[in-house]
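Supplementary Note 2. Why include the ligand at all?

Several targets in our set were suspected to adopt different conformations when bound, so apo predictions alone were not considered sufficient. For every target with a known small-molecule partner we therefore ran a joint prediction. The input for tryptophan is given below.
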Amino acid sequence: METVLSGIRPTGNLHLGNYFGAVKNFLRMQQEYNCYFFIADYHSLTTHPTPADLHGGVKQIFAEYLACGLDPEKATIYIQSDLPEVAELYLLLSMNAYVGELERTVTFKEKIKKQPDNINAGLLTYPVLQAADIIIHKATKVPVGKDQEQHVEMARKFANRFNHMYKVDYFPEPHPFNFGDNLVKIPGLDGSGKMGKSEGNGIYLYDEPSAIKKKIMRAVTDSGPTEPNQEVAEPIKNLFTIMEQVSAPDTLQYFKEKYASCEIRYGDLKKQLVEDVTKFTTPIRERINEIKSDESYLTKVAQMGAEKARESARKTIKEVREIIGFKPF
Ligand code: TRP
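The joint prediction is reproduced in token form.
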């Protein structure tokens, strides 16, 4: 069975866009593949979080993914820093990663513009660490968005370079992976574009009902249809897209018909959406809070994941050390 691996940034919270995109994909993948999902906390040090923020961020996102249904019995779910083997592979790979190619990485060029006072070496070698994450479990499928494709390409290059350098056929090639057309893009509530953290237009899974109400009631609309059966304007289409995910099919149908006959009242549409989004997120929000307050459960899940992940990582490191020529006397 092929191995799927993905790293999760421990910053921010999950919004509906994440839920119907990446999270749903993870939930399907864990049924079909040998999956590794981990929280990339080593990587997050490139932005110098405080210890409290680092710990809080890891715990929050860990609880959120578990609350969404990531299953520690099906997938190996772990925290990157529980795997010192990753740091060792990163060191070994960094000897065959060239400064020039690292400097040309798009994300590096963007990052140094964003944080000119903190251009640390970890930023430069970020893709090397990511390659170590991926190939330590010999993963071949890496579910990532467009912005991460170059990193997967670099992981592939480093894996192939290692194989050539030592004349072995050891690391398989990792490739970007997604379910393509099945990926639902959830728009933001500001009329256009997708829901995103940086766009500040998101409905978060942990949002209280009052926050959900405020956000949806404020969503951009237009002055309404003027002719029967006219094409649905983008901001309204966006509300329908969200409705399609959280509401009953006949509810959506009802509002589409009202739009087509020019009888729609956006206030009613929004009220319905508030109700259905709240109904959808409430059990998840409650579960997030339940998991967060259950330290012993979190510890158990993290330990279980670390054990499974280390078993695979230890094997790779042992073999890699031998291939490179580190041999016991
Ligand atoms: N760089 C990824 C991001 O910013 C996170 C990540 C770290 C990752 N290691 C990975 C993703 C390995 C896929 C595979 O989202």
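Residues 1 and 32 are 9 Å apart (CA to CA). Residues 5-7, 9, 40, 43, 130, 133-134, 142, 144, 148, 151 surround tryptophan (CB under 6 Å). Comparable summaries for the other entries are listed in the accompanying table.
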